[in-house]
Prior knowledge:
The complex is a heterodimer of chains A (247) and B (346). Chain A contains eleven helices and three strands; from the N terminus they run E-H-H-H-H-H-H-H-H-E-H-H-H-E. Chain A is mainly α and 247 residues long.
Amino acid sequence: MSNYIVRFSLKQRIEHFVTMTTFAALCLTGLPQKFYTTGWAHTLVDLFGGIDNTRWVHRFFGVLLAVSTVVHFASGIAAILSRKIGFSMVPTKKDFEDAIQQLRYYLGMTDQHPQYDRFTYKEKFEYWGLVAGNVIMVVTGFMLFFPVKAAMLIPGQIIPAAKVAHSNEGLMAFFVITVWHIFNAHLNPDVFPFDASIFTGKVSRERYLHEHPLELARLEGGLPPDAHGHGGHGDASSGHGGKRVVG
Amino acid sequence: MKRFLLPLLVAFAASPAWAGIPAESEDCLGCHSDPDQTYDLPSGEKLSLYVNQEAFAKSVHGETLRCTECHTDKTSDHATGQLKFKTRREVTRAYYEQCKGCHFANYTKTLDGVHFAVMAKGNDKAALCVDCHGAHDISRPGQPRARISQMCSGCHGQEAAIYAKSVHGRLAGSSSDVPVCTDCHRAHDTTDPRDGALAARTPEICGRCHTDEKLMKRYGLSTKVVDTYLADFHGMAASLQQGKKKGPGVRLAAVCTDCHGVHDIEKADSPNSSVMAANLQKTCAKCHEGASESFPKAWLSHYEPTPEKAPIVWAVQLFYKLMIPFMVGGLVLQIALHLWRVVVNR
């Protein structure tokens, strides 16, 4: 018998795909603008048909990212209001305890691996980092897209500051994704070479038991909520992805 | 014999300066020393056949060249008494090629120049070697330097008059610090300024002087102007537009001259300067249509962001300078610890 858990809904998988492609396109068209003195930047810009084209492609994907961010917020708020989902992504006290325990485990100070619920502290960190990053990139991006209009609303000096923020936040996001996300989704020995769950939506029950035991227990109704006492997440998470067992 | 000796003797006595110059050795000066001697060209123009021997003797070629080294085909003309030229310009154009024999490098450069390009398109007036350097009276170019701009003003009078009033032009007569025409436009491979290629090079051209610490110190000017320009949006866009030409629908990023002017460059604090604070809004609006009063503040006026000059920009810059290594370092450390534990578990 093989069985799996549906971890990500179709909407979430589409959102990831859109974010992934826009992020890649924005990096390819944005980083050459930051590192414009290098040879590879000129090669990339030429590939997009010159700097003017590159910037239009960048703006197109930037607007797409802005729209996807707004859609994500709006649907998230609507879903919370209609009680379809809960606050499973909100950082809690347990996340900080988990983080400390995880580090203690890595350092060999304990053999007790933290027991994770639907989202680990690492996933929450990356999610909120992305959300905050998106907001910064979208807001500063629009200032740079429409500097004349922006200067009518805000002091002029904000615009060069927005440029510094946009360029550095973008670089930081690039590093976080290439270092942290690529490690967790590809190079991490637990998932190597490729954690396909965000594309298929499915995770094997065996892996789920290992990675998200608290959520699995709640989904299967077999075990009481975890000892840290935030069982309130219980019915909230079930809306994200029901359990399906395939015979 | 008499026809030859008399003028020679007269000339010899009158101007000993040319005595013994190579040009003398071929007897040409015997005839060509009469200021009134002319030839009637078919165009109706009179071609002077006079060579000012004193001027030639003093010229750079006076001590080295004989007449026939440039005038190679004179003998046949002399035989028939007829010139093959119809206009004075044709005469000039014919001798243009003669310079190539010795000055091959500079001649080759002119082939890339705008004067050659317009001449190839049929403009008869386009400057040739002798138009700038002179013919029998060639002297070392740039002595004095201001002479170069005067030379160009012969054809480019309007530009020269504007330049003469600019911050550079006003000093050109008394100082060799300031640029003359050829410093920016080049001498032989003079760039066509109309397609934007010359403008695209201005950060480098202007930067040659404006990043020179010693030179700028004399005038109390900043040497950071090029770096701060390149670090900003215009500099980035312009760097990536290299090689691109102006054309319909193609607008190039602002370079030095778009804000500071071209021939009419003024001191940045002069009331007439296009980059003077009070005039900046109008200058920005040339490209940024509808620029408001606060818009020029989006440009840091070639200052590096400091707590005094641009505190917000400085603070954001500092934040990321600390944040990026902290963030990336933390994540890498956690990955390293994770992998270490994986190894230990095995």
